[in-house]
Amino acid sequence: MANTxxxxxxxxxxxxxxxxxxxxxxxxxxxxxxxxxxxNTAYTATGEVSGTNYTAGGVSVTNGNTAGLTSTxxxxxxxxxxxxxxxxxxxxxxxxMIYSTTDTNRNLGVFTFGSQTITAxxxxxxxxxxxxxxxxxxxA
Amino acid sequence: xxxxxxxTRGWVPADQVELRRTVTHDDDQITLVRVDKFIGxxxxxxxxxxxxxTGHQFGAIAQSL
Lengths: 140, 65
Hints:
Strand content of chain B: over 45%
Oligomer: heterodimer
Low-confidence stretches of chain B: none
Structural class of chain A: mainly beta
Radius of gyration of chain A: 16 Å
Shape of chain A: elongated
Order of helices and strands of chain B: EEEEEE
Strand order of the largest sheet of chain B: 3-4-5
Structural class of chain B: mainly beta
Largest sheet of chain B: 3 strands, antiparallel
Number of strands of chain B: 6
Strand content of chain A: 35-45%
């Protein structure tokens, strides 16, 4: 039986756990014209949407999950949908940044989608199944 | 408000609002459905329902020493 080089699953889970477990998270929306991405170390107001019933910084993210591990893949997903209620966002937006207010607004990830506008309505982002195949953040 | 829908006219009883759903984006990661709202044929706003199918995966590669 041969040895196999690998980063251990428990190391990946510990790394992910350090940035998500029990953290206070928020989700901000960004204009389609913005350039928000993985180089943003923290939440930025630059390029963020503005409009009726939208507060700068976005909305709270329900974080009832801790980093999970299946085999050698660590994963984590918010435990509820992200919802912007009764907003009017007239300028097209196509991205959401999830960030940690616990850790000086550390950017956890920017997730893009098709360009949208919304008028007097609710924008809901329903989360994927929280597992090693579809979880919102996976460390494989 | 239970049984009501928010529109450009404020909260309106749900039975007065016609909803028209259109898939505006669909790929391996997310499906977005735009729900346009009408009262008597007049457009009074829209909702957007996004279903994330899969998130981001980043990999750790262990190379030989």
